[in-house]
Amino acid sequence: MSTPLFSDRTDAGIQLAEAIYTTITQLSATTIMPPQVVYALPRGGLPVALPVARLLKCPLSAIVAKKITHPKNTELAIGAVTAQGDVLWEESRIPKQPQHRQALLNTALATAKFQDEQFSPACPDVNLTGAIAIIVDDGIATGLTMAVAAQSLRIYQPAAIWLCAPVAPASLLPWLQTWGDVLVILNTPEPFFSVSNFYDRFEQVPTEEAIACLRQQTEW
């Protein structure tokens, strides 16, 4: 059993916000920093991303990416897909039969599209071109959803993509660096069993609560 590092997602978000702010401050000493846009992976990423956007005083949006799961083990990610249809497969786990692969993809894509319909009305209109996209989740286990989210944002030609989370496996960092320009990860414990082990409280975030995080940005 791992020792909890955070009391809850808000606590993790406050700590992550300070680390991201410090990194921006350090970089701004030597270069002009582009504007920032924070993108949360819902639902769990939104309570973490809220303190980040609040501290940076920048827009907070949601980018929906869902795991494509193994039919015999729903905890095992074999890929990920965004609501817009960007797909990333775990090469060693891709189903050999095309129709099987397509069926699994279609299930995950339908879920992503449904969730995107829930969140998009609360997301602000932003221009990501030339800005820094800061992608936030409550933790990174396989990195597939974070990576496919980064892949989907590249089309908007951001100045940079930052991948940010309170916790991730140390062994995953080199792979994550191929997807993002900057990594801000607070803790990289090994062994890494699951993200939930590093939180005192890690209940599922209700959709209404996650959407409320997006609507709070009128306060800054």
Structure at a glance:
The protein is an alpha/beta fold and 220 residues long.
Rg over alpha carbons: 17 Å
- Helices, by number, come to 6
- Number of distinct beta strands: 8
**Topology as a string of helices (H) and strands (E):** HEHEEEEHEHEHEH
The residue fraction in helices comes out at 25-40%
- Give the end-to-end Cα distance, rounded to a whole number of Å: 39 Å
Report on this structure.
This protein is an alpha/beta fold and 220 residues long. Helices cover 35% and strands 21% of the residues. The protein contains six helices and eight strands; from the N terminus they run H-E-H-E-E-E-E-H-E-H-E-H-E-H. The protein has helices at 9-28, 45-56, 98-119, 144-153, 173-176, 207-215; strands at residues 36-40, 60-62, 65-70, 73-82, 87-89, 132-136, 160-167, 182-187. The strands form two sheets. A five-stranded parallel β-sheet has the order 2-1-6-7-8, sandwiched between helices. Strands 3-4-5 form a three-stranded antiparallel β-sheet. Strand 1 (36-40), helix 2 and strand 2 (60-62) form a beta-alpha-beta unit. The radius of gyration is 17 Å and the shape is globular. The model has no long low-confidence stretch (mean pLDDT 95).
Which terms would index this structure?
6 helices; single chain; alpha/beta; 5-stranded parallel β-sheet; 220 residues; globular; 35% helix; 3-stranded antiparallel β-sheet
